[in-house]
Write a structure and sequence with these properties.
With 459 residues, this protein is of the alpha+beta class. It is 31% helix and 25% strand.
Amino acid sequence: MSDVTHAVAHLAEHVPGVPVMLLASMAALAVTAGFRTRWTRRHGHAPPTDDTGSRPPSAPAAGSGAGAGAGAGIGNDTAATTAADGRADDGGESVDSALWRMRTTVRDAPGSLAALCAALAERRVDILSLQTHPLAEGTVDEFLLRAPGELTATELVEVVSAAGGADTWTERADAHDLVDAPTRVLALAARTAQDAAELPLALRQLLGRCTIRSLPAAAGGRPGGEVPPEGSLEDTVLRLRAPEGGVITVERPYLPFTPAEFARARALVELDARLGPRLPRGRDVLTLAEGSDITVRRADTRDVPAAKAMHERCSARTLGMRYHGPVGDADRYLNHLLSPRFGRTLAAQTASGRIVGLGHLLWDGDETEVALLVEDAWQHRGIGGELLGRLVAMAAETDCASVYAVTQASNTGMVAAMRGLGLPLDYQIEEGTLVITARLDSASRAAARLPQGQRIGRD
């Protein structure tokens, strides 16, 4: 069975109902992103240098890499079995090491890549994986390297440059980068197929550190005309037609996109468009302190009528606290707030199906905003705190560094809910507007009081 056939079978098993032709397209893109192990057909290319020269912190060796050898070599088995940032050298002694991602340009000539690999081997750098990104002239070569802990980024670039590499870019990697490219692409496709809100996150994980924005159709134009149906690639900016008619822009100033990355991103967006609106079916039934049962579930634009009905039951003060503008404009925000393209929404509803609370987790470029609205009659019962805790747990799942809430200093309910998270908070007050930022580093999350039960939005 071919690699593509294996990939189609894997995706079909985890994402039922997706058209076979689309599965085959996704699988083919994933397999072509795989690791090439034949050096004789290698070419070269890479983005501009972005090297800080900083020395990476050494991590204690977590064990030895059995049979891995110390020279430069390509080995997916090594990547799978030595996930920790440490390994054993040829003499069996444990040494500190660090994982690096690197892209570089190598001359399109026989022996060029071999010379580079030999130079890396002399500095005891292992090549754990290798990807190719073909261009019109040459190819981008992307490496995952395990290097001695004392080797700095500057020294690594100097080694590569001396061996003929040019325009070298380096970045510290971690154990998550050890997953091979086809597996990663298929996993992202499966997540996107299950949940429309996953698309921006899947694009970010596919393309690395980047800024993703969704623009409505009216704002999607650009100088020289609208984005073509197939999208556009302009060096460090991708523009793709969003399924609902707007435009998704992806910017990565530190590293130009390649045609292969553009094709993968476009395939994810096409998958999202083919599947249409969808949400995970997970939900929790919670018993409040006074005994009432409330269901917490994911919501989207299909809940706009119920959300508008909740607005009608809210006081002008409550709506003003939430939307910071004319109360009559509140309904206008709902299509944006409930769209999975801009984030995730949780709804709290009664046993009769009436929505009495909404919590939003909004992707705001490189930042993440949280917002709450609870109907007056249901305030001070813990609903807002429950929604907020689940939203922040979702943000932590996506590796967000922080979340922020924009409110008013007089909104004691929102302030209390943010404090109730048990996370480090920063406060900024400007002309009556209060911005509260919660940090989500691993140490803070470990000490936080975030929900530990079923995660809403997962089947």
